[in-house]
């Protein structure tokens, strides 16, 4: 096994923080070393330094994509932090469908969408809520993540029987198709409502033409230090429509004095 030196770990940490906002804590050194062993072995690198040189010189961008896929943990599941989805259904949708009744255009961003459970759940909630009126509304969701690996899984939309067992029975019946005894695939009617894209939340600016009514960014900022998180929250604020909402993870928090969002309930904020 190749070992990473303190100097090499510092170099990697600074690189990940500078370009992707990901803060690698010193106690993650062994984890990082373990996750990258196969990459170094397959690439016949004799040190972490030579691997870094390869990443810096790779014009295709594939090397850094592999690095990010290895270093980011994308653990999620359907109905994670379910109270958020209940609030979205009972409070957010009635409000937005009222104020946007003339335009019939809801813009929702699932930032850090991982393997797709979150955006697909939001689509299913809206399909139920709007019912026969759904065709009159543009409710397509933008779903982004920095990891190409989880985006590929999200686009496929294939989940195990155990994964979808927590969902309402009518969702399982109406919005999934059985592939085999163990797997189900999300239906095309739901899949076509989500636009998946690779996006780095640490980008200096967000290239979106229109602001969003709702932004979900849950359990992503746990990888960021306080300054990176503060900058991201403020960029989210600028991209939120007045009256719009931001959902973050329950393990995350926002310092109320540093941003313009108003606290609504645990991990839910609103731009007034």
Q: How would you concisely characterize the structure shown here?
A:
With 272 residues, the chain is an alpha/beta fold. It has eleven helices and ten strands. It has two domains: 6-71, Chemotaxis Receptor Methyltransferase Cher, domain 1 (Orthogonal Bundle); 82-157 and 189-270, Vaccinia Virus protein VP39 (Rossmann fold, 3-Layer(aba) Sandwich), CATH 3.40.50.150.
Structure description:
By secondary structure, this protein is of the alpha/beta class. It has 2 domains: 6-71, Chemotaxis Receptor Methyltransferase Cher, domain 1; 82-157 and 189-270, 3-Layer(aba) Sandwich (Rossmann fold). Helix content is 43%, strand content 17%. The protein has a 7-stranded mixed β-sheet. It has a 3-stranded antiparallel β-sheet with strand order 3-5-4. α11 links the parallel β7 and β8 (240-248). α2 (29-42) runs antiparallel to α4. The longest helix has 18 residues, at 82-99. 31% of the residues are buried.
Search tags:
272 residues; alpha/beta; Chemotaxis Receptor Methyltransferase Cher, domain 1; Rossmann fold; 2 domains; seven-stranded mixed beta sheet; three-stranded antiparallel beta sheet; 11 helices; 10 strands
